[in-house]
Amino acid sequence: MKNFISGIKINQGYYKSFQPNFINKDWTIDDMEVLSLLSKADRQLGRLDTFSQYVNLDLYISMHIAKEATQSTKIEGTQTNMEEAFFDKEDLAVDKREDWDEVQNYITAMKTAVKDLENLPISSRLIKKTHKTLLSGVRGAHKLPGEYRKSQNWIGGATINDAAFVPPISNSVENLMSDLEKFANDDYNFLPDLLKIAIIHYQFETIHPFLDGNGRIGRLLIPVYLVSKGILKQPILYLSDFFEKHRTLYFDNLMRVRTQNDLTQWFKFFLTGVIETAKNGVDTFDGILKLQKELDVKLLTQKGNTDDTRKIITSLFENPVTDAQKVEKIIEKSYGSAYKQIAILEKLNIIKEITGSQRGKVFVFDDYLKLFKN
Predict the structure, then answer these.
(1) Sequence-distant contacts of 108-114: CB under 8 A, at least 24 apart
(2) Domain residues for 218?
(3) What is the DSSP string of 212-231?
(4) Can you spell out the DSSP letters for 55-90?
(5) Is residue 293 one of the residues assigned to a domain?
(6) Residue-wise pLDDT tens digits, 147-167
(7) Same-domain status, 269 and 341
(8) Which CATH number do you get for residue 121?
(9) Do 20 and 148 have their domain in common?
(10) In a 3-state reduction of DSSP, which class is residue 368?
(11) What's the whole-model pTM score?
């Protein structure tokens, strides 16, 4: 990476924009620390993907995506937490509903993008479609959802003159994104995929091709790319939590590539995030298996038919927030039967009430949520 040049600043009259160089080229990695971190990251990803075979991913994937959605949107300033992501909109305070909408859009965008991989490669078409879903009906809905920008944007600062970073001019966005697309799909480029997606994420954030939502789309691309390459079967590696915890380093390392051509430091930060996040993912799956065994033991203490209780518990692994109406639909029995089941689950300390109200009570599967919060 010694000869790497990220790009140049171009005088646009009253401001200077940054013009990144194309990335679809041959790369040579000569830093042994990067190669060592790459080896560790590959091993941890392999463990995570293997471990995921022992649990019902279709059941738990909602939690993984919800965590990513809340953390990725938190970087942009929203305040929705994981429990609230599973609430019905009308159960939230009015001032929280806009943030909730953005989180729900992120969840939908992630699921749709992974589904679209069946017919589309990582491409401008897929990226634009995902962006349109992300901004549909929320703040930023007037900023060309699903279309690359036609005007100059900037990052930080009240005006372009005091901006922390000014991306390339709009008429170069199409060519830069075309180059990124070719790089993402060039199977003859033997750069390891984890380094490729590290470069893709950096380049996407540098191009900043949309008027809004660039950070969220750029972070969403990481698990989508790993699924597209068959490295993961499902999008279960999310770096937004790591980026949020190390927010200053995240932005500083991206900027360091642009100002000092230091791609090596970005690689180290990114791979460290993959290693830490994959380890946490393995721990989460291990915790899920242990929790399931504990629940089985608890149910053995119950007399009579526990089929309805098991149905509810299974549903809680997909959606850890419930109420009497939801339970009624799950067991397909009366409202009274639903409350009887809720009482059993409360007695077994499987769920707890969080609203503190007499009517419209909401319950959460707290031990399960804690596995994703820790």
Answers:
(1) 108/133, 109/133, 109/134, 109/220, 110/65, 110/68, 110/69, 110/220, 110/223, 110/224, 110/235, 111/65, 113/220, 113/224, 114/223, 114/224, 114/227, 114/234, 114/235
(2) 7-283
(3) S-HHHHHHHHHHHHHHHTTS
(4) S-HHHHHHHHHHHHHHHHHHHTT----HHHHTS-GG
(5) no
(6) 999 999 999 888 999 999 999
(7) no
(8) 1.10.3290.10
(9) yes
(10) helix
(11) 0.91
